[in-house]
Each structure stands twice: as structure tokens, then as C-alpha cells.
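Saturday, quiet lab. Running sequence design on the C-alpha cells for the scaffold JK sent over.
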């Protein structure tokens, strides 16, 4: 048999019930009517949260794509490496970039190609320098016969604002310049290219100010390294 409830227990139960009855009933939340200021405020708050989440997601995806792009570039650099025998290096190839600097040069060459600030081949390079364009001239040391480009260092020295440096491989230089063929020389120009406005009145296509600023920053850093280069005999490969 179940034990009978004591008077004390009955009193406690009654007290709890009366306290629960005295508690105020929370009104059920009613959404604001459409078109009112309250409804607009709620909508703006929700939209703001969505926009913030979207912005965070885009930043995360951008970081991932940037990291993936750098990894792909490094992989391309490894795949595109060419072995150049020492006897294939021209005796006039001075100053000659070392491996570390060569990688920087090729990455900057790719940036210049993307920004349309790159001149390829002897004819284009000579024409650009004579027009007064400034920048950095890259020469391939394994070009034969070397007479094809032997006059370019002198032209660069006589020009105002043009530095030059030699790299080992014409094949790698061609790849960095965005061509399928080997390239004897390229000029990374710091002079913005003037483009004719289209007939339909739209804005002419060209490099963005951000791309040009990035290219200029990279180029200035590399030129300082080029000026400090030692003689070819002191460079180890």
C-alpha cells in the first residue's frame, strides 16, 4: 500500500501551485506587421547578418583560391625547369641571376604579361627602349648565336631608367612570358601603355591600377637585387 500523504507535504504542494499561478504569463511574440518601421528594421537586421556571413565566406574562399594559385605556380615552375650546360652559357652573360632571383624574375614576368606591360623579342624590346620606355630587360644566356642579342646590353646602358640582367634558360623565359616558344629577351616595362578608346565609347581595356602598383613594387625590389649582383664566376648553380 502507498503511504498516505502527510499534511506537511500537502501544504508544500499547495504553496508551489499558488506560486506558479501568481507568475506573470509571458506574451507570445508577435511579428511586426509588414510595411511598418519595426518590420523594416527587422528585415535590415536579417539582411545585415546575411551580408556579413556572405562577406566572411567570400574572404575565406579568396584565401583558399590564392593559396591554391601560389601552389599551382610553384608546381608549374618545377615542371618547367630546364637544365642548361655550363658551356651553353654565353661568356658575355653578366650580371647573371642566381636561382632564387631567377624565380622572382619569372614571377614578375608573369605579372607583367598579365598586366600587358611586357615586350617580347629583340624587335619589340629595341623599339620600346628607343621610344623611352623604362624597366628591366631580361636576356637569355643560352641563345646561339649570341650576336642576336649582344647589342642589347649596350642599348640598355645608354638608355635612361633601363636595367638588365641575364637568366640561364631561353625556354624558361619563354614560358614565363606566356609564349610556347623560347624567348631571347623580354622587357618588363614600367611605362603605362596608352590604349586607344574603343569606337563605342566604352573604357579601353588595360591593367588595373592595383595590378600596376603590384608590378611596380615587385620590380623595384628586384632591380635593387640586380644592382647588387656579383660576377658570373661567383654564382653557383
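Result came back. Writing it out in full:
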Amino acid at each position: 500500500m502507498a503511504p498516505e500523504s502527510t499534511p506537511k507535504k500537502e501544504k508544500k504542494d499547495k504553496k508551489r501551485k499558488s506560486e506558479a499561478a501568481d507568475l506573470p504569463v509571458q506574451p507570445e511574440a508577435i511579428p511586426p506587421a509588414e510595411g511598418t518601421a519595426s518590420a523594416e528594421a527587422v528585415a535590415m537586421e536579417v539582411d545585415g547578418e546575411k551580408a556579413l556571413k556572405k562577406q566572411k565566406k567570400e574572404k575565406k574562399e579568396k584565401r583558399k583560391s590564392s593559396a591554391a594559385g601560389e601552389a599551382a605556380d610553384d608546381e608549374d615552375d618545377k615542371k618547367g625547369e630546364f637544365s642548361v650546360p655550363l658551356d651553353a652559357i654565353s661568356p658575355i652573360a653578366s650580371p647573371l641571376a642566381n636561382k632564387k632571383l631567377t624565380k622572382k624574375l619569372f614571377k614578375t614576368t608573369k605579372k607583367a604579361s598579365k598586366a600587358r606591360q611586357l615586350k617580347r623579342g629583340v624587335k619589340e624590346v629595341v623599339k620600346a627602349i628607343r621610344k623611352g620606355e623604362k624597366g628591366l630587360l631580361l636576356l637569355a644566356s643560352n641563345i646561339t648565336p649570341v650576336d642576336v642579342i649582344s647589342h642589347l646590353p649596350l642599348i640598355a646602358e645608354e638608355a635612361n631608367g633601363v636595367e638588365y640582367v641575364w637568366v640561364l634558360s631561353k625556354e624558361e623565359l619563354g614560358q614565363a612570358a606566356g609564349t610556347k616558344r623560347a624567348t631571347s629577351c623580354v622587357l618588363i616595362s614600367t611605362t603605362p601603355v596608352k590604349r586607344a578608346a574603343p569606337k563605342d565609347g566604352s573604357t579601353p581595356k588595360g591593367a588595373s591600377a592595383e595590378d600596376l602598383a603590384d608590378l611596380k613594387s615587385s620590380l623595384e625590389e628586384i632591380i635593387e637585387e640586380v644592382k647588387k649582383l656579383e660576377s658570373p664566376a661567383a654564382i653557383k648553380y
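Notes for JK: Helices lie at 7-22, 37-79, 99-114, 121-130, 152-158, 170-176, 209-227. The beta strands are 118-120, 135-140, 162-167, 185-189. Ask whether to fix the surface positions before the next round.
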